[in-house]
Amino acid sequence: MNKLFLIAFSLVLGFNSFSQDQVIMTINNKDITNSEFLQIYLKNNNDPKYDKTSLEEYMELFIKFKLKVAEAEALGYDTIPKLVKELDGYKKQLALPYLVDSAKNESLIKEAYLRTKEEVRASHILIKVSENASPADTIAAYNRILGLKNRILDRSSFKDVAQGKGGSEDPSAAINGGDLGFFTAFQMVYPFEEKAYTTKLGEVSDPFRTRFGYHIIQVTEKRATRGTIETSHIMVAVNISAQENEVEAAKAKIDEIYQLLEEKGDFESLVAKYSDDPSSNKKKGVLPAFGTGTTTRMVTEFEDAAFTLKQDGEYSKPIRTNYGFHIVKRLKLTDVASYETMKKTLESKVAKDERSKTTQDSFVAKLKKEYTFKSNSKKGLKWFYKNLDSTYLKGQFNPSTLPSNKPLFKMDKKKFTQQDFAQYLKSNYRGARQENTNTVVDVQYSKWEKETILNYEESKLASKYPAFKALITEYHDGILLYEIMSDKVWNKAMKDTVGLKAYYENNKSDYTWGKRINGDIYECYTPESANTAYKLLKTDTLSQLQVVQLINGESELNIRHRNGKFDLNRIEQAYLTDKNLSEGLNNIFEADGKYYVVMVQDILEPSQKEFGEAKGAIASDYQNLLEKNWLKELSKKHTIIVNNQELYSIGK
């Protein structure tokens, strides 16, 4: 069972609530409003109806849901540390869109949209340096990258510098010379994206830093976005450094596959038979969508071949990449959607992206005004300047040595003190840079002050924003529901082997085999293959494998063989229904464009399934029984009152 399904995972920031949010139901004297009911009702009904019958049916499901949550709370599930931690994690994620400067955030969303309409091609050189590197290491890395830029400005080519001695520390530079191909918004870390979109065509940027180190980039091309494309491919793998004879063999193979396609071969069948890509050859060659708005990148040659295709279903001639040879098939091309269509998606991406941090500083400044922030850090930090030493970086700082607890700042009539900061220092020594004591204190204090203000605002979100409160309630209930259902129903049923077997004995008639055949089925793609198979089988001198090999030859597209027991009434074997099969070799018949030859060893009449043969279905049914009985107990234990008048007024 999927936990996120039960939680009804959503980042919706608002919903249409009633002008007067009335109580629709009470459980154990706890009120539940019609807006909470309606929010969940709308999420679970794509075509909501507001007639009396529909509302009553969903209310019955809602009551069962709330009964289980009430029982979980009564048993203390909401105090289990791992569940508390899980919910806190969700709260942090859900709070992010509320903890930004909305005006600046809107501009970032619009900026991201405009960037999705333009693609930039850039090359880069990277000199690695840790985010927590010492000042000396940081300066050394900066000077190295600056020296490489100066070499380029002295008329060395960007590629030569990237690939040369002491050049780029990006491993791919040895192959691509630093060329990253085309990209658009969200496909690079934000500082890199920002520099790429703001550097003029042909110019080399100033050095800039990301979490990977220092970079310089050269923007080589800009073009209108080509959209998002879904593709499949057939791949013949050959390493970029392979011997010439290996490359020639791979080229011959892909050309032969292409010829089969040109002779009206089936692309998906050829994928299954020949493609060397293990991530897609079991999925008809289908690859993740790439292009605008996705995080998936393909090598330039592959992207160019895909976007050159003019219509869905068209496939390319063989192309070569660093991974081998490919035939690319276009499945679907989607142009960039309108801003209104993409806004919600962009909001979510911006909220999760590094760029959202740029709006937090201005948001914190607004909160300081709103909550009448007053700082006393100038005096309050003096003790830390004097007493924090190099042992702090080893995690040896002891807050108990702090002799006072003066406020470092006041906000919303609340004090945030030296002891609060000291505890933060103790818990956050990892990652602090090896700098002088005053700098360490100032950097850590700045982080603590910002984090504390944002945490304080986060604690007030539920009272400020009903939509946020509703989402937190939904996640809270979903987490508890999953855990208690696991304990009381799902896992309980699977572990109760005695109960499972007893349930099976009492309900044997529910678990029976339909009429089946035991034998061999030969699935053929042409009547000629079926006729040949029938004639070969009639001689009764060849094995199943020999029949298949003779008909397929060097192909895999002529005949498919399966052996075993086949239920004549199962939907998967619908082609066998009403065929009046008898023991021995049966006449050829056609179904759904395929031709079948069936050799029946035995006809098996309907019979009882053994426990092991039906265990999955038995477990599912037993779980349903456990849940039904458990809900009867809960309905007696917890008090529920439904306000039908309010329920029936929904939608009016």
From the structure above, extract its key features.
652 residues, alpha+beta, Chitinase A, domain 3, 5-stranded antiparallel sheet, 4-stranded antiparallel sheet, 18% strand, flat
Quick synopsis:
This protein is an alpha+beta fold and about 650 residues long. It has 5 domains: about 75-115 and about 345-370, no CATH class; about 120-225, Chitinase A, domain 3; about 230-335, Chitinase A, domain 3 (Roll), CATH 3.10.50; about 370-465, no CATH class; about 510-610, Chitinase A, domain 3. It is flat, with a radius of gyration of 33 Å.
Characterise this structure.
Helix 3 (about 50-75) packs across helix 19 (about 465-495). Helices cover about 45% and strands about 20% of the residues. Residues about 5-20 have low confidence and may be disordered. It is of the alpha+beta class and about 650 residues long. It has 5 domains: about 75-115 and about 345-370, no CATH class; about 120-225, Roll (Chitinase A, domain 3); about 230-335, Chitinase A, domain 3 (Roll); about 370-465, no CATH class; about 510-610, Chitinase A, domain 3, CATH 3.10.50. It starts with a helix and ends with a helix. The protein is flat and about 100 Å long.
